[in-house]
Write a structure and sequence with these properties.
3-stranded antiparallel beta sheet, 142 residues, binds zinc ion, 36% strand, mainly beta, 1 helix
Length: 142
């Protein structure tokens, strides 16, 4: 039996709360401006391109490519200790924005520009963890 405590569940606020509430539906959503069509992340209160305030979340393709990553050997949250070492990836989504998520694959399968897809681990109606996995790799336990 593991002595690892439960993972901390963040309590996001503001536009981050909107992002995670949409993620908790089980599908990644990205903020779009209804006025000019630009795409943003992190989400904002007004459009950085046109200043518009009609910003909506639309379902994402969930597809992107690895832009960068880091491997953690000491967890910030002790709840991740049983996953050490683990990778956090920055993914450039096909929609053009970059997101940060946890790597669901093997560490030796990480490669720059590798195609990946998003996976959502729902916690409750307000929060979900965002994971990324290499395209074509099998879904295994996280
Ligand atoms: Zn706009």
């Amino acid at each position: 039996m593991s002595n690892t405590p439960p993972r901390m569940i963040p309590d996001p606020d503001g536009r981050n709360a909107d992002f995670y509430r949409h993620l908790a539906t089980g599908q990644l959503h990205i903020q779009h401006c209804e006025t000019c069509g630009s795409v943003h992340h992190p989400p904002r209160f007004s459009c950085p391109s046109c200043g518009g305030e009609k910003l909506i979340f639309r379902p994402s393709s969930g597809e992107g490519r690895i832009f960068s990553w880091t491997v953690n050997h000491r967890p910030v949250d002790p709840g991740w200790a049983d996953r050490l070492p683990y990778a956090i990836v920055v993914v450039e989504m096909n929609e053009g924005v970059r997101l940060v998520g946890a790597w669901a694959g093997e560490l030796d399968s990480l490669a720059l520009d590798q195609p990946v897809r998003a996976e959502v681990e729902k916690v409750d109606e307000h929060f979900a963890f965002l994971w990324f996995r290499g395209e074509g790799s099998d879904a295994k336990g996280r």
